Predict the structure.
Amino acid sequence: MELHSAATAHTIFTQPSVAIVILNWNGRHYLEKFIPALLLSTYGNKKIIVTDNASDDDSVTWLQQHYPQVEVLQHKKNEGFAKGYNTAFKKINTDYYVLLNSDVEVTPGWIEPVIELMESNNSIAACQPKVLSFNDKNLFEYAGASGGWIDSFGYPFARGRVFEHLEADNGQYNDAVPCFWASGAALFVKAKQYHEVGGLDEYFFAHQEEIDFCWRLQLAGYKVYVQPASVVYHVGGGTLPAGNTTKVYLNFRNNLIMLCKNLPLRKALWKMPFRFMLDGIAAWKELFGGNPGYFVAVVKAHLAVIYWLCFQRRLSVFPLSKKGALLGWLQGMIIWKYFAQKRKLFSEIVVHK
């Protein structure tokens, strides 16, 4: 018995330390639903931390009463997704950070496969598990599915999710492979590399910050992976539901700023005007379809990007270099393949020979 205990202690001691950090804002109902499963995680050398973004509900009080083993960090105001995590990670000293949405259900062995993969390759700085839908566990979930990709004009998609089309998970994307971006719903990242590239861009506040972050990691010479041997289930839309005009505004604004920051200047100079045109077409389509809020949000996003370019670029985090190889990058336009060629599946769009 003593020998077994000593061996267990040695295993825990040699495991990299992992901080699983949930950024919470008025999410007591999600904490109540998903913390129990998180506590069943089998990885030994971990700590679970809830960082509260100045919630108006009783999230913190409830958590302290029912789960005192969960650490709590409290922000004085709602700092958004990016700054909320940056502030928290300045106070946490572990080998790995896991950014975990409050509306994610984990499985008991979800941590081990990701850490084993990342430990096996020093170049892997970030990784995500396979993300399936909580409401229909046979489907991939919008936020990351089985590894995020991006096209030449900045439109994100994923293995198992192209625009609004969600594929059924039949094991077709079960290989651990490089991707362009890892989902912020369940993002594993090595702490050293997180700080090395400047963390999440706080100017973004929320939405697409993980794509920008993974882009900067790759430009710095690191790789981003998906490890589908790890599985989590995501509710999605937990803070801002789909169609919310604030979400539309942030997605368009942040995506364009991301392109400005990370593309080589010679490409940005012609791709940015082209993207403005494509966004405009989408906005007018929504307006004529009876959705004026969407139209206004896109216009505001474009004006905000111009303002950022003229006056606020210094507030953003730029890549350390632009020499790193980009994986998970689709040459061409996803919107042409999806809408014109009617290719709905990732495997129809990215054909591996």
User: Anything to note?
Assistant: The CA atoms of residues 241 and 247 lie 8 Å apart.
